[in-house]
Amino acid sequence: MPEAAVEIRIGEANQMTITNIISAIGNTSSVYPLILRDCGVEIPSKVYLTYKENKDDKDVAFLATRERILDEYATSAVWLGGIPLVERLVNKFVIEKKGFNPNVNLKLFKESDCQGIDYNIKYFEEKLSKGEISKEAVEEVKSAIADLKKVKSNKGAYEKLLSSKFLAATAIPIALMGFVIPKLIFGLTAKTKAAKKAKAEQKTQLNNVAKFLTPPFTSLKSDVFTPFSLKNSKNPAFTGNFSSTVANFTTYEKMAAIDGGYAIGRVATSRKKNEAVDIGFKMLGMMFLNFVAPKYIEKILDSAANKALNLDVKLDPLMLEDKELLKMISDKKLAENLPSSNDGKSLLKFIDENPKAMFTKYAAKFEKVSLLEDGTRDPRAFIDIEELAKFKKSIEEFGNKALSIAAKDGDLKAIEKEVQKFAKKAKIVKSLNILTNVGLSSFLLAYCLPKVQYAFREWYTGSKLEPGIVD
C-alpha cells in the first residue's frame, strides 16, 4: 500500500448537498440529467407550446393539449421506471430462480492479461488461499467465485437469460410507449370527437343519434406502415457477440434503445401520413438532443473554460472540493496515491491492494469499478480499463495543472493556499458548465425543437394544427 494512501469520506455519506446534485446531473452518461430535462423542463414547456400552437381552433387546442399531457407523462413514467422495474422482476423471478447471479458480466468471457472469467476465478482463489481477502469479505468472494463457475459451465443458458432480460426490459416499454399508450390516447380523442359530433347532429337530426355513438378507432395495421406492425414482425433472436453486448447494456444505453423503438412505434401508430412525418421529425430531434448533444456541449464548454481561464475542469465537482485530494497535490504526494501506470494489471493491482485509497473510492463512486461491501473488488464485474485509465489521467492532469500554477511561490503554505484557490475556481466553473449544459440542452429540447417542428409542420402540411387531430 502506498505510504500516503488516504481514506476519505465522500460527501458525508450520501448527503444531498448542492455539489452532490450538480455532480449527479453533470454525468452525461447517467439518467439524472435525462430526468431533470424530461420531467422538470421539457414536458411543461411542450404542453404550453402545444396549446399555443393550436389555439386558433378551440376544439383542436383542447384535444391536442390533453393528448400531450397524457402522452408525455405516461411515456415518461414508463421510460424512466420501466427498465429498472422489469429488470428487478426478471432477476428475482427468472434468473435467480435458475441459480444464476445476474451480476456476472458476460464480457468476462473475453479473457485478457488482467481479467476474464478464468483469470478472475484463479486470481481470487489465490488471494483467498493467501489470506489476502479481509475476513468480512471472505464469504462474499467465495460466493462470487461460485457464481463465476456456475456461469462458466452454463454460458449458453445464462446468455439466453440475460438476452431475454434485455428484450423484456426494452420491448415491454417500447410496446407500451410506442403502441399501447398512443392507441389509448387516440381512442380517447376519437371518442371525444365522435361525442361532440353526435351532440351537434342531435340538434337537427335526432333520429340519427345512434349512428354517431360508436367512436371510430384506427387499426394498428395500415397500408402505409405495415412494415412496422407488431403482427408482421418476427421474434428477434440474440446470438454470439451481439448477445454479450446487449445483455450488459447500462440503463442509460437501454433508455437510448427504447427511445429508438419508441420512435418507430409512434410513427407506425400515426393516424395519418402527415402525422407520421411530423412525429418522425420530432423523435429524431429528441434522440439527438437527449443522447448526443449534451456530450458535445460538455466538451465544448470544458475546453473553452480550460483555454480562456487557464483551468482544468475535467474532474467532478465532488473531487474538486475534496480536501484530502488537494492536500496530496500541494504536498506533491499525488503520484504515490495513484496507480503506477495505465495498463490493466497496474490499475487493478492498485485497486485490489488499496481498497480505501482516494483513487479506489472515487473510481467506485463514478462506477469505473464495482466493489463489495468492504471495498474488495467484485470478481463478477468487468472493468473498462480504458475508462479507468482516462480517469486516472484526468486526476494527474488536474494535479499537475494546479501545482504548476501554485508552484510559483516556494512556500508550502502558500502553495497549499494556491492549490485550494485553483480548485475552488475550477469547481465553480465546472458547476456553471454543468448547469449551462443542462439549461441549454433543456432549452433546445423544450423550446427550440418544438418551434422548429411546428415550422416544419406548417411548411409540410400547410397548417399549424396537429395533423393527427384536424379533419
Brief sketch in words of this structure:
The chain folds into two domains: 1-30 and 294-471, no CATH class; 32-100 and 154-291, no CATH class.
General description of the model:
With 471 residues, this protein is mainly alpha-helical. It has 17 helices and no strands. It has 2 domains: 208 residues, no CATH class; 207 residues, no CATH class. Helix 4 runs antiparallel to helix 7 and helix 10 packs antiparallel against helix 17. Keywords: Membrane, Transmembrane, Transmembrane helix.
Taking all residues together, what is the mean pLDDT?
83
Number of strands: 0
How many domains? The number is 2
The rough form would be described as flat
Beta-strand residue fraction: under 5%
Our measurement of the CA-to-CA distance between the termini, rounded to an integer number of angstroms, reads 74 Å
* Number of helical regions: 17
Determine the fraction of residues in helical runs and give it as a percent range. 55-70%
Order of helices and strands: HHHHHHHHHHHHHHHHH
Main structural class:
mainly alpha
Poorly predicted runs: 1-16, 209-239
Radius of gyration: 28 Å
Main beta sheet: strand number and arrangement? none
List keywords for this structure.
471 residues; mainly alpha; 2 domains; 17 helices
